[in-house]
Amino acid sequence: MMRIKTPTKKRIKRELDKRAPKLIETGKKTLILHGTKTSNVLNAVLAEIYHLKRDNAIKYTKKNDNVRPFESGGETSLEFFSLKTDCSLFVLGTHSKKRPNNLVLGRTYDHHLYDLVEVGVENFKSTESFSYDKKLAPHIGSKPLFAFIGEGFESVEELKHLKEVLLDLFRGEVVKNLNLAGIDRVYLCTAVSPTKVFFTQCAIRLKKSGTTVPRIELVEVGPSMDFVVRRHRLPDEGVKKQAMKTAPESTKKKEKNVKGDVIEGKVGKIYIPDQKVGSVPLPNTAKGVKRERREAKMNNEAHEPAEKKQKEDSD
């Protein structure tokens, strides 16, 4: 049996607390590693992916002979590296005669293999091969936009899976609000065929349009490549159901009879029961009625003595 040793140093405790599950997760880290054999094209692709995710990525340069995610038992070393580096995403590069320039994109859940997508790289162009104004170069850590063009991303199972993995790989930390000036890049993914996707990165140039909303121009800055889908493995249904769970504290309760409006803001409805004004008798305690009765009584008392004196004189 494995012996569980509790940490005694505060530095180690802080590191373990960072890796502990949180209600609001931070950005996912990516592990980039080489397989048994890689080509020059594949080395350049891995370097470009590391450059795009430099703020939350870890790259291994040594070859790993035991990492074979699609084979039984070949994921042991990969899961160990995921636990060691606290990475939930990985990119593995391999090259062989049967599958040249091969990339394996995958995700892990609880540091165990979750799903896999295998693609081949064709028509690769690095960032250095594009000529553009260097002032338009995207900044490290900026939030990217995504554009998925083609019906294949909604109908073909392999492309739908590839879309999910690419979004997880490049989107970074999830935020609610964005500053328009901080959006400087967009990833374009075009479904050329049911098994081929064109991937490139474009910089965003904001120009005057005469209105409050600027006009947007896209400048291709690279890298660009074609992804040819080869193999993919979907997650197990039980593991998927467990991974999709959300904490009870993070779910917001629905407010009844309240809706949001763009112009008026928060709008609510108030339901009042029927008052039945016609059938309910009115109380005879009005202040005006009391006052009239009091004045009439005072007037009667003032006239009564004079009438009595007139009667006595007549007698």
TrEMBL record:
Region Disordered, as annotated, extends over: 239-259, 280-315
Q: Where is the composition biased (Basic and acidic residues)?
A: 292-315
Subcellular localization, as worded in the UniProt entry = Nucleus, Nucleolus
| Cell inner membrane found in the keyword field | no
Q: Which GO terms describe its molecular function?
A: rRNA binding
Record bears the keyword Nucleus: yes
Q: Where is the Brix domain?
A: 28-238
Report the record's Gene Ontology biological process terms.
Answer: maturation of LSU-rRNA from tricistronic rRNA transcript (SSU-rRNA, 5.8S rRNA, LSU-rRNA); ribosomal large subunit assembly
Keywords (A to Z) from UniProt: Nucleus
Question: Looking at the UniProt record for this protein, which Gene Ontology cellular component terms does it annotate, in alphabetical order?
Answer: nucleolus
Q: What is its main location?
A: nucleus
Q: Which PANTHER family match?
A: BRIX DOMAIN CONTAINING PROTEIN, RIBOSOME PRODUCTION FACTOR 2 HOMOLOG
What family is this protein classified in?
Belongs to the RPF2 family.
Q: What is this protein's name?
A: Ribosome production factor 2 homolog
Organism lineage string: Eukaryota, Viridiplantae, Streptophyta, Embryophyta, Tracheophyta
